[in-house]
Write a structure and sequence with these properties.
Blueprint lengths: L1 H28 E5 L14 E5 L2 H4 L7 E5 L5 E8 L5 E4 L2 E4 L2 E3 L5 H5 L11 E2 L14 E5 L9 H4 L2 E2 L3 E10 L5 E2 L2
Antiparallel strand pairs: 1-2, 2-11, 3-4, 3-11, 4-9, 5-6, 5-8, 6-7, 9-10, 11-12
């Protein structure tokens, strides 16, 4: 009888430890997310399942072109690409991204831009001053984010700049559907 009870206690301890480890990993290191909507096409598709690395920004700051998940509202997280960093001025004019007046290439948009017909607009022109907040440069601990599907994305053009403390983490792995499995770089 005592042997059977010890076996149950061992199983209970193992389950408690496994649950605790899962809680720690999910809370502080990684979390799953499902892409909801077309705003990151063609990079990410509606229904893609991803793992978000929450640890990255505990030890560092976002880099340009990172794909990040952030709290857009109290109940909704969005996934977008970091375009502008603190201290920068951002402008898009004639389908070209300018950071502090210098052209910055966006190779992840080449296919879409090359398929535009005359007079089609992929990214409507804007300057940082046009965004909510009327900033002349991105303030400390904030980023400007845009969806890759610029003509169909709720991003900094509507939401304003995103404070670091609203960023959940960086998209790390697309794991479902399996035929689209890849590490996000």
């Amino acid at each position: 009888m005592a042997k059977k009870r010890n076996e149950w206690l061992d199983w209970l301890k193992a389950l408690v430890i496994a649950g605790l480890l899962a809680f720690i990993v999910r809370t502080f290191l990684f979390t799953p997310i499902v892409v909801d909507g077309p705003s990151m096409l063609p990079t990410l598709e509606n229904g893609d399942h991803m793992i978000v690395n929450k640890f990255t920004y505990l030890v560092g700051e976002p880099d340009r072109f990172d794909i990040v998940v952030f709290h857009a509202t109290a109940k909704k997280d969005f996934i977008k690409r970091v375009i502008g960093l603190p201290g920068e001025h951002v402008e898009v004019r004639d389908e070209t991204l300018y950071i502090d007046g210098e052209i910055v290439k966006e190779p992840f948009l080449d296919t879409e831009k090359n398929s535009l017909k005359q007079n089609d607009v992929f990214t409507f022109d804007f300057t940082l001053e046009d965004l909510p907040g009327n900033y002349s440069e991105i303030p400390p601990e904030h980023v400007l984010v845009l969806g890759d599907n610029r003509s169909n994305s709720t991003d900094s053009r509507l939401l304003g700049l995103i404070p670091y403390d609203q960023i959940v983490g960086e998209a790390a792995v697309l794991y479902w559907p399996l035929d689209r499995f890849r590490f996000i770089d």
